[in-house]
Write a structure and sequence with these properties.
With 323 residues, the protein is of the alpha/beta class. The chain has 2 domains: 19-186, Peroxisomal Thiolase, Chain A, domain 1, CATH 3.40.47; 195-322, Peroxisomal Thiolase, Chain A, domain 1. The chain has helices at residues 2-5, 36-43, 47-54, 68-83, 108-115, 131-145, 218-240, 257-266, 279-282, 289-295; strands spanning 19-28, 32-35, 58-61, 90-96, 121-125, 150-158, 176-186, 195-198, 206-208, 214-216, 249-252, 274-275, 303-310, 314-321. A 5-stranded mixed β-sheet has the order 1-7-6-4-5, sandwiched between helices. Strand 11 (249-252), helix 8 and strand 12 form a beta-alpha-beta unit. Helix 4 packs across helix 5 (108-115) and helix 7 packs parallel to helix 8 (257-266). The longest helix has 23 residues, at 218-240. The radius of gyration is 20 Å and the shape is globular. Bound molecules: oxa(dethia)-CoA (UT7). Oxa(dethia)-CoA is lined by residues 43, 45, 49, 53-54, 129, 168-169, 172-173, 218-219, 221-222, 225, 255-256, 259, 284, 310.
Length: 323
């Protein structure tokens, strides 16, 4: 009864910003480079087969001292330095990952602590290889809505911890590493609208087995990806109000060079569009692949189309202005 007598009044809203933008990007690549021969020997494969079927020549593997938090922190602190943002001024740290296996329930707070981001909220975001576009959409909404000013977003994977080195379907494909961006307020919209979705009916195609190893129905995932990615990419371009001809770069999740090439062809990208092919020397680094591939395209200015897809099944895409 008392409630109905109290005058309802609106709560004070957060004060946001017209837009947000990526201020900087950085990558951490583990020290150890592993070529195809060493992996092929364990799975009855060959350097030639691996290059032909997915375009990978080598990938990085984390040493014992290169754990997930260390790699994420290294990429994030480089990104903060590049943006000229003091860790104390960071409002939120988001870590997109699918390979965290440490004793801590979440790695975000550990990364924030290691960065010295003592005022920041921190959390993990689990959307597998779509993790970066998902987390970017979240960071953009936090800044525009006024819940955060500077957000550190890290994609970090230590796939070595979840890959069975004798699994013929995954052992050659995945690599370790971290990529990070710093997002801050902008008077213009420099992170375009996200187009995203999920289809849990396909979750069996990429799953963990009883031992915690990632198992993948490769050909089925390949067919799913090539069937959805071009349309997803076109919808993200439409949502941003630009066409493929306006792009400076195309930076899809580095899942397989054949998927990247097929999508670039389907989108009829002109020769002026830089297509990220970081997979050749970095492998598939899950949620880290898009920011790492972005960092590997220095001196690129203008709009870039990002597309992530993978376990879940989850997918997401948006156009961003390159930092
Ligand atoms: O990041 C998350 C999303 N993930 C992806 O998007 C990955 C999508 N899938 C793929 O990229 C590909 O399916 C792989 C690269 C994983 C595998 O390539 P594929 O062309 O789909 O191989 P497949 O499993 O269809 O096998 C083709 C042939 C078979 O031989 P036959 O039957 O044609 O004689 C396999 O037995 O290649 C054989 N094969 C291999 N040969 C050497 C399968 N795995 C291997 C191997 N080495 N590791």
């Amino acid at each position: 009864m008392l409630g109905s007598l109290v005058m309802a009044h609106p709560l004070q809203p957060s004060v946001g910003h017209p837009g947000s933008r990526i201020l900087s990007v950085a990558s951490y690549r583990p020290r150890t480079e592993v070529g195809n021969e060493a992996i092929a020997a364990l799975i009855d494969s060959s350097d030639e087969w691996i290059r032909r079927r997915c375009g990978i020549e080598s990938r990085r593997r984390a040493a014992p001292d290169e754990d997930l938090v260390m790699m994420a922190t290294a990429a994030a602190s480089k990104a903060l330095a590049g943006a000229g943002v003091d860790p104390y001024d960071v409002s939120a740290v988001l870590v997109a990952t699918m390979s965290h296996r440490g004793p801590a329930a979440t790695v975000g707070p550990l990364v924030a602590d290691a960065l010295g981001a003592t005022q920041a909220a921190a959390m993990d975001l689990g959307a597998a290889c779509a993790g970066f576009p998902y987390a970017l959409a979240t960071a953009d909404a936090l800044v525009r809505g006024g819940s955060a000013r500077y957000v550190v977003l890290v994609g970090a994977e230590r796939m070595t911890d979840i890959i069975d080195e004798r699994d013929r379907g995954t052992a050659f494909l995945f690599g370790d590493g971290a990529g990070a961006v710093v997002i801050g307020p902008s008077p213009t919209c420099d992170i375009g609208p996200v187009v995203w979705g999920a289809d849990g009916s396909g979750s069996e195609l990429l799953r963990y087995d009883e031992a915690g190893f990632l198992r993948m129905a490769g050909p089925e995932v390949f067919r799913w990806a090539t069937s959805i990615v071009p349309d997803l990419a076109r919808r993200a371009l439409d949502a941003a109000g630009i066409s493929a001809a306006d792009l400076a770069a195309f930076i899809p999740h580095q899942a397989n060079l054949r998927i990247i090439s097929a999508t670039a062809k389907a989108l009829e990208l002109g020769p002026h569009v830089r297509v990220a092919t970081d997979i050749t020397t970095n492998g598939n680094t899950g949620a880290a692949s898009i920011p790492q591939a972005m960092a590997a395209l220095p001196d690129t200015t203008g709009p870039a189309l990002l597309v992530g897809f993978g376990a879940g099944l989850s997918y997401g895409a948006q156009v961003v202005m390159m930092p």
